[in-house]
Amino acid sequence: MPPQRTVASPGEKPWVREIRTTAGDLERESRTRLYNLLEAVGMMTFILVLLWPLAYLFGVLGKHELANTVANILIFLGALYLLFVAPFVHRDTLHSWGLGNPRVFWRMLCHGTPLQRLTLAAVSLFLLVGLNYANFVRWPDVAHFFKFANLLGFFGFRNLDVNHWNHSFPGVIFVVFFGSLLSLVIITFCIRYDNFTSAFKTAMIVALPMLAFTFLAAYFHRGAAAFAHFSLGMWAIGVFGYVFWGFVQQLLFSSYFGTRFRKAFGPSRDPNNVIPKERRPRVVAGFGAGFAIVAVVLTFLGTAYLYGVGSVAPSVFCWQACILFLMGSVYGYVFCLDKRRLLVATICATCFGLIHVASYGLVAVTWILGIILVYVFMEEKNRNLVALGFIHGLLGSTFGQLFSHGDAGSLEVNYSVGPWNIDEPTYGVLVFPLLCIAAYLAFMAWSINNIQEDPE
Question: What's the whole-number average pLDDT of the chain?
């Protein structure tokens, strides 16, 4: 099995180099493996430096507004690089990022079988109506996400109440127009249809057990009271909203960081990469026990520090240990099948988790979710951002209703992240981000001496 080859791709320059990724697929790539890794880890280090040593130390603690402005501008420029420059530098394809293609969508709609055309038209219409409805109902959140108030203020229109345009005329016209335009972009450009079925199946296999764990965790913590304010309608709307938000987040995370990491490490040729069947039960049990012990200890220390010893009932820790034992066992089983692939996914997922500092409950949840998303995203059949966005949608909406509205007590997950959302700013907050920056720098130094390039 050759590690890389040169092929001609339709619509592209005649000769394009391909390398074999961690999962064994061949993908186009114009740079070396080391370049991919240093760029990804360097970009994450750059983001953390902007957020914490710059924005938090000088902007929040030092109260220098210039530091906040510089940090925001540089982060925006970094996002532009991730989305619009990096794909061309590396010669990535739309499919390698899990995106669709409007020309492919139009071809399927015009030249598919009658059943395919009818199904695609029905799905597109459903999505168009559903996304528009979610946009209309959750317009204040949409307006906040796109910073419409700031944009209007920049042009001198500071007295317009953009958050209530969905209930006033002529603002409602703009809301419907913007929602329709955004929905069309999502339907024709963002959704990859050729592998949606297989990717969505994988997404549900991942999401439904985690959804069950989330409901069980809420019940074990607060009993039936956890669902007293649970609204099925708002939950469903929230799922749609989080699918879009998850798409945006995963475009930056799974598409960029996931692509760079899986191209940085080829498939393992070490026979010890797969653990023999006779040793797997012991490894699985060890990972299960390790996950349970670490999670319970960290939860106890965190809740004791914030709310005092006894703030969480012992039974909650018991159920948490059981759930984390199961999750750790699954991690251990997958580790037995392909050590390198899982370790690459685990390291890459730190980029997703650490963006959520200093909400450490959210850091843990998103790190775990990131491991799963990167792992499945490595395979071509699962590389579909919208399908994987449903994982984000189901879990995000559920956590939002059960663990972030003030009723969850000591297990509340704070959705306010970043240096500008610290309730009580102190220098101690910097310790963890600085340790992470040091770890990334050490990892970059290690990679320079250990990343092996494939022979031409």
Answer: 86
Q: What is the pLDDT of residues 94-109, one digit of tens each?
A: 889 999 888 888 888 8
* Residue at which a domain ends, from 70, 96, 122: 96
In sequence order, the β-bridge partners of residue 16 are: 7
Instruction: Give the DSSP per-residue string, 334-351.
Output: HHHH-HHHHHHHHHHHHH
76 and 119 assigned to the same domain? no
CA distance 39 to 45: 10
Number of C-alpha atoms within 13 angstroms, CB side, residue 191?
Answer: 23
For residue 1 the two structure tokens come to 């099995």
- Confidence class for position 395, pLDDT limits 50, 70, 90: confident
As a whole number of angstroms, the distance between CA 282 and CA 333 comes to 10
Which of these, 45, 21, 5, 27, lies nearest to 436 by C-alpha position? 45
What are the DSSP calls for 349-373, one per residue? HHHHHHTTTT-HHHHHHHHHHHHHH
- What's 29's DSSP letter? -
pTM for this structure? 0.84
Query: 3-state SS of the chain: helix, strand, coil percent to 5?
Result: 75, 5, 25
Does 56 fall in a domain?
yes
Q: Would you state the pLDDT for residue 29?
A: 94
Give the residue from 136, 171, 190 where a domain finishes.
190
My answer on whether 20 and 91 are in the same domain is: yes
- The total number of structural domains that make up the chain: 2
CB 377 within 8 A of CB 387: no
Q: pLDDT (tens digit, 9 = 90+) per residue, 406-436?
A: 666 656 667 778 899 898 899 999 999 999 9
Burial (0-12, 13-18, 19+ Cβ within 10 Å), 427 = exposed
* One domain, residues 55 and 106: no
In a domain, 361, yes or no: no
- The neighbour count for residue 25, using CB atoms within 10 Å, is 17
Residue 27 phi/psi, 5-degree rounding, is -135, 150
The distance between the two most distant Cα atoms of the chain, rounded to a whole number of Å, is 70
Q: Are 165 and 174 in contact (CB under 8 A)?
A: yes
**438 exposed, middle or buried (CB, 10 Å; 0-12, 13-18, 19+)?**
exposed
At a CB cut-off of 8 Å and minimum separation 6, what does 421 contact? 358
Which amino acid appears at position 325 of this protein? F
Show the tokens assigned to 310.
Answer: 């006894």
